[in-house]
Design the sequence.
């Protein structure tokens, strides 16, 4: 295990690439983006919009995959206001909402004047599959995440709307298997956010394929027949989650701090993925398996953008990355029906003991891992 010399990302992030100089692919990609002709890229985006504008006559020109968050606000602004398109927002309902999240979902529709379509997944099916995926895979929201990828494409096919807009290319911006600067989002189902697990591993007499249709990814044949063209907006415009947040705030977006609803323990920011309470418990499991999760992602981006020094980021990771907010955990446990004892026993089963160790009953980064983090180096074996 080693850490990037420029940011705080370790090479345990699945499929991330490190170069011979000890710098991770996202840092290299950020430097490459400084040399992109963004005016030319914007021209490409205008040509894309022109191709699809009015292609369905008075019907929707495109689908925007949206949650109501800061990035969704920015995407909707670009396509509705800057490009003059008629988008349909498509989303998957959360298993629980924050009040702030509901406010933002209502705000994006009223602020920009757009229609939205949201599917509410069968809660019995979700609970069943959340539990199975947690105990078997250590990835409880597998079904929910798969629906997020599959359902917008299903709707695009059913409604005859070939252009689908996604925000950032997560693998290119943050690290992963698909490390290419490409506008097409056709391959993002393979970006390792949703593990390629066969349905048979989670189905049984209670849950069959007819119960999980919203999460069934369309076949290649169906995608080609519908001429689907899913694209990443981050290819066409300089992408910054922080800048998107600043823009969204100017258009009515609220943070958890703004509403006073909840300050998440251990989080460096209160503006990303704030629409739901318990979902990020799933993401926290990355810490015990890979030694990093949400703060490492954001701090690494902040370092690249010059918003924080590596030394400051290292300190924050050491002091906070291990923390699991209690309200977040309780909401997850209430929905799934998993006891807190069962949860921590399962965490122990999935913990990578080469990376984390228990100190005072709490899973923390091993001391030699922390040493490598501080130095931006490889872990020295004890």
Sequence:
């Amino acid at each position: 295990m080693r850490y990037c010399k420029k940011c705080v990302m370790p090479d345990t992030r699945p499929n991330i690439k490190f170069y011979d100089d000890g710098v991770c692919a996202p840092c290299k990609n950020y430097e490459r983006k400084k040399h992109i002709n963004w005016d030319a890229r914007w021209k490409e985006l205008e040509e894309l919009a022109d191709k699809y504008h009015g292609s369905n006559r008075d019907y929707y020109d495109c689908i925007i995959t949206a949650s109501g968050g800061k990035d969704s606000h920015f995407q909707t602004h670009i396509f509705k206001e800057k490009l003059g398109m008629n988008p349909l927002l498509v989303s998957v309902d959360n298993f629980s909402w924050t009040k702030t999240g509901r406010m933002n979902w209502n705000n994006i529709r009223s602020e920009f004047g757009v229609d939205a379509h949201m599917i509410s997944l069968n809660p019995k099916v979700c609970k069943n599959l959340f539990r199975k995926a947690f105990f078997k895979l250590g990835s409880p929201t597998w079904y929910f995440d798969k629906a997020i990828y599959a359902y917008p494409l299903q709707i695009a096919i059913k409604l005859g709307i070939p252009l689908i807009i996604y925000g950032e290319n997560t693998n290119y911006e943050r690290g992963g298997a698909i490390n290419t600067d490409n506008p097409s989002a056709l391959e993002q189902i393979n970006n390792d956010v949703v593990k390629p697990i066969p349905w048979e591993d989670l189905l049984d007499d209670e849950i069959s394929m007819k119960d999980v249709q919203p999460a069934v990814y369309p076949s290649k044949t169906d995608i080609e027949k519908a001429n689907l063209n899913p694209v990443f907006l981050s290819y066409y415009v300089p992408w910054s989650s922080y800048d998107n947040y600043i823009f969204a705030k100017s258009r009515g977006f609220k943070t958890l701090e703004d509403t006073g609803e909840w300050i998440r323990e251990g989080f460096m920011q209160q503006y990303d993925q704030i629409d739901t309470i318990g979902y990020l418990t799933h993401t926290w499991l990355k810490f015990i398996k890979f030694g990093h999760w949400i703060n490492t992602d954001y701090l690494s981006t902040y370092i690249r953008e010059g918003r924080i020094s590596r030394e400051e980021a290292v300190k924050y990771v050491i002091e906070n990355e291990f923390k699991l907010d209690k309200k977040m955990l309780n909401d997850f446990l209430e929905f799934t029906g998993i006891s807190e004892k069962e949860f921590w026993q399962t965490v122990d089963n999935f913990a990578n003991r080469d990376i984390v160790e228990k100190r005072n009953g709490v899973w923390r980064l091993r001391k030699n891992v922390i040493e490598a983090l501080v130095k931006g180096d490889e872990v020295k074996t004890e």
